[in-house]
């Protein structure tokens, strides 16, 4: 069992990182340095370089692959998965591992500055110091420029691993200084297999979760293990199929916001309580005891971070709803065009077929465009209620046209 064994559907990317780790572990000339710029020295398939970019769609396993690579560099056995080094990497507590994983909307410039400072230190127990930035696309241009300076002149034993959905999400100057490894979307079967192995669910439920999560591994796990999450998703699709007027659209938008809020609360509430309890324990405050005035600032900082996380969780919840709606109308279009591909929402294939038969492809494409517009508007900080209302007005019109066609 190694750190690579629990990754799924990314054999080509795994081979690149394994070869690089093996190359880094091989004896070499002490005067040699890591490749610092691909423009200066083209990357050999097995070469080791000081900075990497892992790109791929959400749920493809970007961060999991980054930490597996970190384990392979920090572990004396190349990532055995069982030694103290590998366990510390898994717990994000290894002394030679620095992690920036924001749960807010953006990564702040101060966070990157602290990370850059930490990257300058020599490794304490391993051959390398590894720095992982999850969601590197959440850096503003000014923040990215701080990171750029560190990538231009890295310490010899520091390795950076950035994760982002695509290369286009980073500045060209950042992209020119990293070696990019692209991940593919795992197959439904691959995701179902890992859900069955990790969560012990039956094959039917695992396959349904993998389909409805559209191969997003984390979401597939949640749908397979959380009945409430499955019910909230089903409620979203039922609502879209039922709106037929502007009034329905307004009420439906409010309902979708409630669903997204409930989903976000379910994800963050338990974690917030655990974090607060852990913080109080570390400060020596007994359960039920009042927080001393001198410590209230630290608790207030934790609460502020949790509020920012809740804001991002709500936005992510809205995006999940819009992704589910997009999958519904994608399925409708697939049926209308007679394409022989797997439906995402196989569980409601009857409703999909009815809607497809009553509508036209052009109308369905209009709804898909409306869903995409809503996603862009929410990402641009348009009030979510307004973005959802505008989208559902288009959905309502499509449903009315379908109903008239059936009646005639």
From TrEMBL:
Lineage of source species: Bacteria, Bacillati, Actinomycetota, Actinomycetes, Micrococcales
Protein name according to UniProt: DNA polymerase III subunit delta
Disordered: annotated span: 28-55
């Amino acid at each position: 069992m190694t750190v690579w064994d629990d990754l799924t559907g990314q054999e080509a990317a795994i081979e690149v990182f394994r070869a690089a780790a093996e190359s880094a572990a091989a004896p070499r000339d002490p005067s040699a340095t890591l490749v610092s710029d691909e423009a200066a020295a083209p990357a050999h398939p097995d070469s080791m370089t000081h900075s990497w970019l892992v790109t791929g769609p959400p749920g493809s396993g970007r961060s999991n692959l980054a930490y597996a690579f970190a384990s392979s560099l920090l572990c004396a056995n190349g990532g055995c998965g069982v030694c103290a080094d590998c366990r510390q990497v898994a717990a994000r507590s290894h002394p030679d591992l620095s992690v920036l994983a924001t749960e807010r909307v953006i990564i702040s410039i101060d966070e990157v500055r602290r990370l850059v400072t930490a990257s300058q230190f020599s490794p304490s127990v391993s051959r390398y110091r590894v720095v992982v930035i999850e969601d590197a696309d959440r850096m503003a241009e000014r923040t990215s420029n701080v990171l750029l300076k560190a990538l231009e002149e890295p310490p010899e034993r520091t390795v950076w691993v950035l994760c982002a959905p695509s290369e286009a999400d980073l500045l060209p100057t950042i992209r020119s200084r990293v070696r990019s490894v692209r991940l593919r979307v795992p197959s439904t079967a691959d995701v179902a297999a890992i859900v069955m192995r990790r969560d012990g669910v039956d094959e039917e439920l695992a396959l349904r979760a993998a389909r409805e999560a559209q191969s997003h591994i984390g979401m597939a796990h949640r749908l397979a293990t959380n009945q409430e999450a499955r019910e909230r998703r089903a409620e979203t699709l039922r609502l879209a199929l039922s709106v037929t007027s502007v009034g329905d659209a307004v009420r439906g938008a409010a309902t979708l916001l409630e669903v997204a809020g409930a989903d976000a609360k379910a994800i963050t509430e338990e974690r917030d309580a655990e974090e607060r309890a852990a913080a109080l324990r570390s400060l020596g405050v007994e359960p039920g005891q009042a927080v001393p005035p001198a410590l209230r600032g630290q608790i207030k900082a934790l609460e502020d971070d949790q509020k920012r996380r809740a804001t991002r969780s709500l936005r992510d919840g809205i995006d999940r709803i819009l992704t589910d709606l997009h999958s519904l109308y994608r399925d409708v279009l697939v049926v209308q065009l007679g394409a022989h591909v797997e439906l995402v929402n196989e569980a409601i294939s009857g409703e999909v077929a009815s809607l497809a038969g009553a509508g036209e492809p052009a109308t369905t494409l209009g709804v898909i465009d409306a869903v995409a517009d809503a996603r862009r508007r929410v990402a641009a900080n348009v009030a979510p209620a307004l973005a959802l209302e505008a989208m559902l007005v288009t959905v309502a019109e499509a449903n009315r046209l379908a109903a008239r066609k059936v009646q005639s």
